[in-house]
From TrEMBL:
Keywords: Amino-acid biosynthesis, Aminotransferase, Branched-chain amino acid biosynthesis, Pyridoxal phosphate, Transferase. Transmembrane segments: none annotated. This is Branched-chain-amino-acid aminotransferase. InterPro entries: Aminotrans_IV, Aminotransferase-like, B_amino_transI, BCAT-like_C, BCAT-like_N, Class-IV_PLP-Dep_Aminotrnsfr. Belongs to the class-IV pyridoxal-phosphate-dependent aminotransferase family. Pathway: Amino-acid biosynthesis; L-valine biosynthesis; L-valine from pyruvate: step 4/4; Amino-acid biosynthesis; L-isoleucine biosynthesis; L-isoleucine from 2-oxobutanoate: step 4/4; Amino-acid biosynthesis; L-leucine biosynthesis; L-leucine from 3-methyl-2-oxobutanoate: step 4/4. Pfam families: Aminotran_4. The gene is ilvE.
């Protein structure tokens, strides 16, 4: 899907024209995956555009950089202001945001100490990355396993490990499915290529922990908080693939996707898609991101103030 270009990108402290946001072909991060990123969303609300859970995303960006021993040149407060300035400059009412820091041009080779950090923020209009119509998505368990947590820290949202997701998604889409489910090295359920996985059985909502190789997703945390607000019991615990087969409902959640029901896994149809709890959580999520539910307005960073 082609990018819908905006007018400007924030690059190392300045707003520059979209086409001028370029980097050298010998950039360290391009060759070795030494970068960290965040995907964040701006939603239209009655009070104007607002960034959803921006502080949480930026704090995770900072943590990811520290885990990779990258020096992030800007504070969370500075990146917050830069984000708001960019969205305002591009005139977006709703959009996707990509916060990105990577080791730039300066040295080559595996020794990362001599490459400076480049920091960028981009915004553009992006349609949801998984189809929500038709009762949900078709998912296939991938032959690729999720990266071992002892090899690559799953808590770091880093660029290099995303090759794992790219290969799994390509395998699934080539076979006619919408998304891939990745298992951890021990065979337990980890996550999908860009979303956390949720299973509902007997009224209990369950999702795998970070120890399964799953990213500690901000949308995952949002869904769990919304479920608690609805009085639904939640558990963050290990799941087997058979637990998903036996579930009453399965859905996935991520920033780019939202909350999306799963209608089949490995050609096994789920009893209900979307199931009743999935539907309630989708409605609660839409109310939270739009500012319609006052209980969650603290999750919104207004752009027009």
């Amino acid at each position: 899907m082609a990018l819908s270009e905006a007018s400007t990108i924030w690059l190392d402290g300045a707003l520059v024209p979209w086409q001028a946001a370029q980097t050298h072909v010998l950039t360290h991060g391009l060759h070795y995956g030494t970068g960290v990123l965040e995907g964040t969303r701006v939603f239209a609300t009655a009070d104007g555009p607002a960034v959803f859970r921006l502080p949480e995303h930026l704090r995770r960006l900072d943590r990811s950089a520290r885990m990779l021993r990258m020096e992030l040149p800007y504070s969370v407060d500075e990146l917050t202001k830069a984000t708001v300035d960019l969205v305002r400059a591009n005139g977006h009412r709703d959009c996707y945001l990509r916060h990105f820091a990577f080791l730039g041009y300066g040295s080559m080779g595996l020794d990362m100490r001599f490459s400076p950090t480049t920091t960028a923020i981009a915004s553009w209009h992006w349609q949801p990355q998984l189809p929500a119509e038709g009762g949900g998505i078709r998912v296939k368990t991938s032959s690729w396993r999720r990266n071992d947590a002892n090899a690559v820290p799953p808590a770091a949202k880093a660029t290099g490990p995303y090759l794992n997701s790219v290969l799994a998604r390509r395998e699934a889409t080539d076979a006619g499915y919408d998304e891939a489910l990745l298992l951890g090295p021990d065979g337990s359920v980890s996550e999908c290529t860009g979303e956390n996985v949720f299973a509902v059985r007997d009224g209990v909502l369950r999702t795998p922990p970070a120890s399964a190789g799953a990213l500690e997703g901000i949308t995952q945390d949002t869904v769990l908080e919304l479920a608690r607000g609805l009085g639904v019991p939640v558990r963050v615990e290990g799941l087997l693939r058979s637990d998903l087969y036996a579930a009453d409902e399965v859905f996935v959640g991520g920033t780019a996707a939202g909350v999306v029901p799963v209608r089949s896994l490995d050609d096994r149809e789920l009893p209900a898609a979307p199931g009743p709890l999935t539907a309630r959580l989708r409605e609660a999520y839409e109310a939270a991101v739009s500012g319609a539910d006052p209980r969650y307005r603290h999750w919104l960073t207004p752009v027009d103030r």
